Amino acid sequence: MHTLADPRNALKLLKRLERRVQIVHGQTQIAGQDYPWARVLDPDQLLEQTLSNDRPESAALDPFWAANWRAAQGLDRYLDRLGITADTRILELGGGSGRAGISAALRGAQVWITDASSMALIMCRYNARFLTNRIQVRKLDWSDTKGFEHRFPIVIGSDIVYNPSLYPILEPCMRQVIEHNGIVLLSEPQRHTGDRFESWIRKAGWQCNSHLIDLEDGQREIRIFQCRLNPDAS
């Protein structure tokens, strides 16, 4: 049974979302348990809004966070291997609707979920409404980490390496937020861009190993990159 800490704030968040998109409520399996989940009914609606909106703030309507990415499900399962406790501190990059970070929090971790999209942050806060004692949601743009002084022993991200043009801003951000000898776990569905990321990140001074997670859905396994800075590169 999940209990709301602040029902009024949850309702405000929902109303803000519903002014932009239609929201569907249901249950999903996270961390091996049923969890109340809200999702955007039609993610393409966000894409249409982004393309038709000339206002500067339209950049906040990033449509990609709204999809139900298999990579987040794979990362959810992989977190079982980490031995997470109440003392574990985790940062999620590109959190989207919050699934991977919520998975870590349900396992007991203290989690910061970050994203550059304002809409994604609202959705994430709404989905994390039952875990406000373990989750903080913050805005973080990989290209502008000035003033972000927090470092974490574990950094996670699901399906954030699909665009090679983003690697040069993602990698310095990873360096900025990771503790000495910490690990970065990034999941993706074995796209060719994932192959490019693996070789690219090694050249950038990181050790990188990969693990495969079978979601047993008849599709390709999810690949988890485990990245750690080389000692002479930190």
Sequence-ordered SSE layout with sheet pairings:
Layout: H1 7-18, E1 23-30, E2 33-40, H2 43-52, H3 70-78, E3 89-92, H4 99-106, E4 110-115, H5 118-127, E5 135-139, E6 152-158, H6 167-177, E7 178-188, H7 192-203, E8 206-213, E9 222-229
Helix pairs in contact: 1-5, 3-4
CATH superfamily: Vaccinia Virus protein VP39
Rg result: 17 Å
Structural class assignment? alpha/beta
Count of alpha and pi helical runs: 7
Tally of structural domains? 1
Strand content: 25-35%
Helical content (DSSP H or I, runs of 4+) = 25-40%
Shape label: globular
What do we call the CATH topology?
Rossmann fold
Can you give the mean pLDDT?
Answer: 90
CATH architectural arrangement: 3-Layer(aba) Sandwich
Distance between the termini: 43 Å
The biggest beta sheet reads:
7 strands, mixed
- Poorly predicted segments: 55-61
Describe the structure.
The structure is a single chain. The protein is built from seven helices and nine strands. The protein has helices at residues 7-18, 43-52, 70-78, 99-106, 118-127, 167-177, 192-203; strands at residues 23-30, 33-40, 89-92, 110-115, 135-139, 152-158, 178-188, 206-213, 222-229. Strands 5-4-3-6-7-9-8 form a seven-stranded mixed beta sheet, sandwiched between helices. The protein has a two-stranded antiparallel sheet with strand order 1-2. The N and C termini lie far apart (43 Å).
What keywords describe this structure?
28% strand, Rossmann fold, 234 residues, single chain, alpha/beta, seven-stranded mixed beta sheet
